[in-house]
Amino acid sequence: MSKIINFKIDGKDVQAKKGETILQVARKNDLYIPTMCYISKTTPCASCRICSVEVEGVDGFILSCNTPPTEGIEVKINSDKLEVERTNIMKLYDVNHPLECGVCDKSGECDLQNMTLEFNVGNQNFSAKDQLRKVEDWGLINYDPALCIMCEKCVHVCNEVIGDDAIDVKFGGYSSVIIPKNSQTLDCTYCGECIAVCPVGALVSSDFKYTANAWELSRVPSTCAHCSAGCSLEYETRHFGINGEDNIYRVKNNFEYNSLCGAGRFGFDFENRAKKDATAFEGALEALKNANAIRFTSIITNEEVLILQKLKEKLGIKLYNEDARLYADFMKAYSSVSGKLHHSASMDAIKQADAVVIIGTRIATDNPMVRYAIRTASQHNGAKVIYAHPLEDALMKNTATQFIKYEVGTEEGVIALLANELLKNADIDEDAKAFLEELDLGYLEAESNVGDDEIKQMSKSFSRTQNHVLVLGSDLFAHARAKNIAKLAALIEKYTNFSLLIVPNEVNTAGVSLICELDVDEETENVVGYNADGDFVLSSLEEADLAMPALNQVEGTIVNVDNKVLPLNVALAFDGYLLNDLAKAFDIDKEYTVEYTSELPSDKGFKNIAFDSLENFYSPHGDDIRGYLLDEVSCVVEAVIEPVADLPEFNGTVVYNCNPVLQFNKFTNKTKQLEKDTVLRGSAQFAAAAKINDGDEIEIISQNRTIKRKFKLDDELKGTVALNPVFDIGQESSLYRFQKSKIVRVI
Amino acid sequence: MSKVYFSTWNGELVNNIGKPKEEWEESAYNLPAQYDDHRDSKAFIGWDGVSLFNEDVDVIRLAMEYAAQYQVYSEACGRCAPGRWGGRILYDQLDKIARGEGEIADLDHLKEIGKSMQITSKCEIGKTVPNPILDLMNHFEDTFLECINEKKKSKHYDDAIGYIAKITAPCTDACPAHVDIPGYIEGVRDLRFDDSLEATRQTMPLAHTCGRVCPHPCEDACRRTNLDEPISIMALKRLGADWEANHEYNFFHPMEKKPSIDKKVAVIGAGPAGLTTAYYLAAEGIDVDVYEELPVLGGEVAVGVPEYRMPVDKYNQDIECVRDMGVNFITNSRISADDMRRFEKEYDATMVAVGTRISKKVRCENERPEIKGYWGAIDFLDKVNLYEKYGYTISKEEQEENLLTTDYVDLTGKTVVCVGGGFTSMDVVRCSIRANAKKVYMIYRRDEKTIIRNTTYEEYHEAVEEGVEFLFHSAVNNITTNDDDILTELLVDKFELVPDPDGGRAQLVKIEGASYTIEADYLIPAVSQSADLDLLPEEWDIEMTSWATIKTNGKDYMTSRKGIFASGDCEYGPMTIVNAVGQAKRAASVMSRYVQTGEITLTDDEIMEDHLSKLKVYDKKEKVTGWLPGLPREHSSVLDAEIRKHNNAEVNLGFTQDQALAEADRCMRCYYIAMVQA
């Protein structure tokens, strides 16, 4: 029902869509109603009561934040009576609020300060007995109940958007406090959104606390460099000491409309401090001249990728990046069925969805923002969330409505089963029909361990759903059957009402895969590594032959999971050499790296827009005005879907490459605040199979590397698959994420 | 009527100050002047005013203690700025005056903060707490001024006085199980479904069931009705329960099970009353054995209420939740009088909750149970549900008795006539439609309006949509059978409602010459049910009601025999699930103390609950302010009649998330706080 409700606010004709509240309509029309507890991305907390308005002919005040208008009403948002009561509420907020604005982190950007001034509360008529309240140390987060105004924003965000559901209101009237939910101390993924949304200084970053005033910090809007979500953030910098250098003090985000995970928020100090080293620069030029190949990671800007492509052409060398190459192959296979270059869904589409199917990713840690989007859909739309994976994930428990456990390696079979069910009533082409008829369902079900009843249960839960999204992730890109999996997913996207989201591995895997031609990594000699192994290494990490800037020190763009081209900015200066300096020496001649922004390949959907013309903000109404969306590009449909291959078996001990929360790569590993938990986590069953015990030092011996780890028994896990972090050692992107591994105890 | 010294309750001003006691005017309200058997009340103070039963009440302290109770009880609230700080300020200022340190300005501050709370608080508790306090300040201004001017303590400031407070809400009061309805709706609104479910389970373990098939008396006491339409209270209940099931969580219990106290209770009957008794007793650390005659658990909700209204997998969730509390179930065990004698020795107490499982007759000519085609509603529904929900087939012998040729109820080609008008009869006719009957009639003595009132609007209209023909103002006069004693025809009389010229109740009068016959294969009486109480040993001589149900005082649910309790339909007569739950919850509380002390007692909370029920919390004449009227009640969609009449799929699809949130946002959180000085 898209009924429009016409009514008036302060005499102005306005319109509401079904489900919109008076406050939302007022804001849409730039009419100001003050609030203390309202946050756009959650259901109304309705605790502050300041947004009360009057309605002609209705006695009493009406709360505008959670009341939808009715036809023809006349709303008054300003009156003397309202002013008196709003002022009284502000007086109450100020009762016993500690007068520590001088040192409070929030001072200068505090809602309570602002509103106290707005309502001109200069003195206190009311008093209440003060109470002694202890500051809580929750690790990265500090909570001061004395400063807390109990707006409940943090609680709503944690539950509705993040999904940790880790904090709760302990009701007690005047003594109400925020407490960790069902736990002595805070047990959560430390996204820090509670800090972001806190309107006062009650929830603060322990690291930032008392280090700077809000007005001393310079804000640099940029894009997070840690995963493919490409979140909007602002680095806040200040120089340290009288002649000291600049530092990033903290990261903030537009919490009103978007979120940020803890890696983005707390993992900001991955910059590389370096001076120009002419000798090393000469060495780099020499290495490039002799190079057979450049090996690089996808933690790189589009512009630098274009420079690498030009170097490849100029020097006749190869480019290695297994992560992006496999992703490109996956997308090529997808395009060959879908007839277009880019997948159709976005994180916003997930937020609007009421049905989500996730396959081939441990999504909560692979891409926290996608998790938040799914959580939002789950809470706000009651979305049915089908999570298919060999491993359950406790973080997804309260969001997933059905967990489908499949055997390691059988992803192709699972997608085939899914396609068979979803395409049942679709008007599909003959080839697809033939493919589905050929399927040996009994075999697929038996080998993948996904029962017909589970698929039926899923279908049943979709009986009333309308907006469907299929989410695929990085278990699939290096899968032996990756291409056929991509084609099957494309088939589902093409013939059903599912849109498709493919979650790339790294911050710019998508960009790299579009911009350059990659070669199969054959590990030839004379390889120059760029943030990767090589005979000569250009790096923004420690092991560099020539130091390079990190992504918080450069201008440039990346392509995120939504196919958006997003700008990065310089939060901290870099005094060394840039890739562009090396390129210039080979007559690839642009003065600044970002001059390449407008030259990114238009046949891949990039637009001819200069870097300096890219916007990077959210409008006051929440419109995402950051960079631009890649143009859709048509492709030739030519693919034949192959029959499903025999499903592999993974017996014995299997290790899954999977990072803990807040960790993604060597850059996050470099940051000060983020926990660096490098243990191998496994179930009791895994420990028994591997003949190891909790706390043992072990070696994981797989196909082509041996890793030393400590083993930790994890009660939340089941089965013989253990989780192995790779953020400290680097992903082996060319390999399927599950690896049969021999586990040896080191004595 | 209550004798009061002073009262402002519900806008009625009774002022007997200065008058001799014998000249006191009475209040028109049922105020709790007598707290319990051995205590008088001195004062009653609540959302709607204050009543003093005694001249000696310290009004300043009373006001202060009421504000203090608001502080104590604010675990239910404390969720808005005006309530949170305002309540504390009220208390601090009143205490300051009561201890003799007050100033004149404090009175102004009290009035100002009180007014702000009244206008801007989130829930009614915050809005109403200032009401009686301002009343007292207004009517006893001199007393306040005296303390302030003379800087002296209020007259009983240092005395030990008992104040007993209780939180309620109109809906909670009207719910026989006293479910914290605003609490579970708030859980939905806040998208904290675990909180929502736990709020329900505090007093109601059957959240799936009563989120689906409750006749929701609460909705008749919803204050939102005074503004537009009542909240869809029942439909919001299942959200928490469905959420728990959908996410495959363990059961969220609102309390922690206490360690065993080495006491044992037997519960006879695993229906709603038995399950409820068992759940709350087990939570108290008492070992509970539940004996059930049928092979399946759940009582009439399992074998009476059809699958399309109450899917058994959902009901089983409720039952498993009870089992999860540590309850022991014994099925297929019909309890005899000998068993009961034994139980009296072996158990510390026994709960009889056997329901009413004998179908009463329609009282017509030639009505004999042995007629083939005459089929009691309870047995009919047993057969349908045991097959449809659990796969139990019907034996050859029973097939023959009931003219069946299949081992389940298949009525293809048959005409079914049901006599009734309540929920059971609705279940019979709608199950008959689903069993493929050719024609289904419902014969009812009264009219359409009454049948809707006795059941629900939805139930009646859904039955009509499915093709049931309702014959109103009708009653069966005679049953015709053939030579094989098979039912062939019914003679039906028509009645009309003749108003009483003296203004009394209208009478049903038979219309002579309007009788007609219906060819029928089955007559299913579903007029009412009675209890089968063979299990009660005769020598116990347990007192019965005139309705042939077990008699208790309706407060502690002990029968005339010590240690033997009764609840649910066998106590009350055929009634609702929620009524059985409410009785059993109270009984479990009484029993949990009885098994330890041998005493029958009620808690203060329960005494207050009964007082408030008598006083009535909901006031349908009250003018509601501070809410925008005209926001429509949400209706969940139902399966299409053409689809649903051929299967047993759940008819009501429940709210979508959007609907649930919109509906929850209509709830006005009408919590109130009442307090007695005893």
What structural category do the secondary elements of chain A indicate? alpha/beta
Instruction: Compute the separation of the termini of chain B in Å.
Output: 19 Å
Q: What percentage of the residues of chain B does DSSP assign to strands (E)?
A: 15-25%
Broad CATH class of the domain at 342-502 in chain A: Alpha Beta
Q: How is the CATH topology of the largest domain in chain B named?
A: FAD/NAD(P)-binding domain
Level-2 CATH architecture of the largest domain in chain B: 3-Layer(bba) Sandwich
Quaternary structure classification: heterodimer
Distance between the amino and carboxyl termini of chain A? 68 Å
Largest sheet of chain A: 5 strands, mixed
Number of domains of chain B: 4
The number of helices of chain A is 21
Average pLDDT value of chain B?
A: 94
Estimate the helix proportion of chain A, in percent: 25-40%
Number of strands of chain A: 35
Largest interface: A-B, 57 and 51 residues
Query: What name goes with the CATH superfamily of the domain at 342-502 in chain A?
Result: Dimethylsulfoxide Reductase, domain 2
At the fourth level of CATH, the homologous superfamily of the largest domain in chain B is: FAD/NAD(P)-binding domain
The percent range for strand residues of chain A is 15-25%
Could you give the order of strands across the largest sheet of chain B?
Answer: 3-2-8-7-25-9
- Main pleated-sheet profile of chain B: 6 strands, antiparallel
